[in-house]
């Protein structure tokens, strides 16, 4: 009886040990599973990290700009019909240098006032695979058919002192209508005293100049005592010489010293040519104004010649806007689309020395 009881106790003890062993084994298996999962997670994360690192490296390689900026290695076409213009040349040179400093490959295309050739060259640069186009002092409205093909190809188009049409990224310019108002009001009010006669020297094919002309057209209607003698178109190739010839002929047709009160020039080169013609003819009483603020015009204002005022455009500011927006675009950053304005300043003899 005692032996059976001892056997029963021993059997129960062995079963308890077996159950404890199974429980420990099960828990141990679970812990091992957890640890294995952690290690697998580490391995998976490491693999993912390595893969991400490779992708990042590939992405870095695919964007050679690196820290130098998004323009590194890009092929950019600067296109203008007016490189002979002092101010257009100034903008082209500024943008060209900024782009080259950023690592871009830059080609400058000048078509010497020939818009049909400019349209043809647009097709050429698209075929050549340019990465971006900058139109400088070029009316995109005259290139609309070719530009639609450019837009369809995905090549970004920027403007500097050009017009703006849908599909372009940016056009940096001055507020040409506001500049026209500024110089016309100064001429009509401050210089002419609200009366007299005026000659207008214009070039309406230029998108900026035409806005100034529109301001002139609108404002002269408000001055019944000011009479427009004539509006003369000045070609863009040699505007100083051509304006001088035009004004010389007008002076012969109007020999009375009081017959011409003023000459309004839509930009500085014809204002300079008009001033030269007036000086040679001894017509010092005729007032002249221009727009652009180029160095020669400001010098004539300082000297107290017939050229009494100009509006200085911030051409470097325009070029800087274009460069900054291009850099942002090629970095994949958001840009300000549409027309962006650089501020302009009225220059008279009172403040010309500060320029």
Please, could you describe this protein's structure?
- The protein is α/β, with parallel strands linked by helices and 355 residues long.
- Helices cover 52% and strands 17% of the residues.
- The chain contains ten helices and twelve strands.
- The strands form two sheets. Strands 2-1-3-4-5-11 form a six-stranded parallel β-sheet, sandwiched between helices. A six-stranded mixed β-sheet has the order 7-6-8-9-10-12, sandwiched between helices.
- Helix 6 links the parallel strand 6 and strand 7.
- Helix 5 crosses helix 6.
- The chain is elongated, with a radius of gyration of 37 Å.
- The N and C termini lie far apart (126 Å).
Secondary structure blueprint with pairings:
Layout: H1 2-62, E1 75-80, H2 86-101, E2 105-110, H3 115-127, E3 132-136, H4 144-153, E4 157-160, E5 170-173, H5 176-191, E6 196-202, H6 207-220, E7 226-233, H7 239-253, E8 262-265, H8 268-281, E9 287-289, H9 295-302, E10 307-312, H10 315-330, E11 338-341, E12 345-348
Parallel strand pairs: 1-2, 1-3, 3-4, 4-5, 5-11, 6-7, 6-8, 8-9, 9-10
Antiparallel strand pairs: 10-12
């Amino acid at each position: 009886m005692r032996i059976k009881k001892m056997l029963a106790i021993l059997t129960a003890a062995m079963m308890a040990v077996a159950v404890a062993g199974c429980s420990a084994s099960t828990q141990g298996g679970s812990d091992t599973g957890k640890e294995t999962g952690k290690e697998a997670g580490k391995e998976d994360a490491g693999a993912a990290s390595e893969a991400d690192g490779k992708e990042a490296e590939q992405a870095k390689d695919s964007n050679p700009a690196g820290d130098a900026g998004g323009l590194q290695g890009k092929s950019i076409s600067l296109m203008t019909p007016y490189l002979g213009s002092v101010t257009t040349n100034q903008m082209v040179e500024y943008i060209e240098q900024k782009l080259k400093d950023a690592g871009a490959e830059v080609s400058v295309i000048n078509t010497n006032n020939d818009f049909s050739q400019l349209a043809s060259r647009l097709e050429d640069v698209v075929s050549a695979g340019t990465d971006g186009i900058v139109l400088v002092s070029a009316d995109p409205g005259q290139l609309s058919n070719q530009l639609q093909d450019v837009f369809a190809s995905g090549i970004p188009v920027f403007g500097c002192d050009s017009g703006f049409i849908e599909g372009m990224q940016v056009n940096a310019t001055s507020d040409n209508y506001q500049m026209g108002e500024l110089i016309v009001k100064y001429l009509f009010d401050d210089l002419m005293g609200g009366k007299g006669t005026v000659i207008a020297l214009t070039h309406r094919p230029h998108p900026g100049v035409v806005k100034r002309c529109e301001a002139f057209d609108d404002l002269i209607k408000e001055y019944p005592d000011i009479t427009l003698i004539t509006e003369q178109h000045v070609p863009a190739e040699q505007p100083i010489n051509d304006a001088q010839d035009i004004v010389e002929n007008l002076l012969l047709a109007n020999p009375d010293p009081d017959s011409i009160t003023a000459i309004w020039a839509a930009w500085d080169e014809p204002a300079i040519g008009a001033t030269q013609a007036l000086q040679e003819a001894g017509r010092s009483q005729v007032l002249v104004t221009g727009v652009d603020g180029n160095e020669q015009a400001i010098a004539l204002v300082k000297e107290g010649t017939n050229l009494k005022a100009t509006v200085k455009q911030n051409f470097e500011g325009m070029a800087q806007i274009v460069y900054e927006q291009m850099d942002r675009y090629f970095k994949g950053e958001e840009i300000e689309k549409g027309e962006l304005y650089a501020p302009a300043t009225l220059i008279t003899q009172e403040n010309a020395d500060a320029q």
